[in-house]
Design brief:
Layout (H helix, E strand, L loop, with lengths): L2 H18 L4 H13 L6 H23 L3 H9 L6 H31 L3
Helix pairs in contact: 1-2, 1-3, 2-3, 2-5, 3-5, 4-5
Length: about 120
């Protein structure tokens, strides 16, 4: 399956899953999509990374805008980082992307172990 289709599928299904289940349901979605439709190649990490990072950054930006960056600035000041709300949005996207990327890689390895395809 195409990389962009897998990214879109992971993004949509993880966003829907997180409305009903905890945050780590996105990791399970990335794993399952990559195990079912992916290939164990160089693009597995990026499908999960972008598939989770994009919705997390959109949602974090939405919450940050609604709250006028009050909580984001306080958390950033706690860690001695620049007090700009978009920094927290970027950090949230990077963390979510790493979770999704690693889950996709493990899903690709799982598919390779079970089916033996390259």
């Amino acid at each position: 399956m195409n990389l962009f289709v897998r990214i879109a599928l992971i993004a949509v299904l993880s966003a829907v899953a997180q409305q009903f289940f905890p945050w780590w349901s996105a990791v399970i979605v990335a794993f399952v999509i990559e195990a079912a439709f992916g290939k164990a190649n160089d693009t597995t990490f990026f499908s999960g990374f972008y598939g989770i990072a994009i919705p997390w950054m959109i949602y974090a930006g939405y919450i940050d805008t609604l709250s006028d960056s009050i909580l984001s600035v306080q958390v950033l000041q706690l860690f001695k980082l620049p007090p700009y709300g978009f920094v927290m949005v970027i950090i949230t996207g990077l963390l979510g992307g790493l979770y999704g990327g690693f889950a996709s890689v493990i899903g690709g390895w799982f598919r390779k172990a079970i089916k033996g395809d390259e």
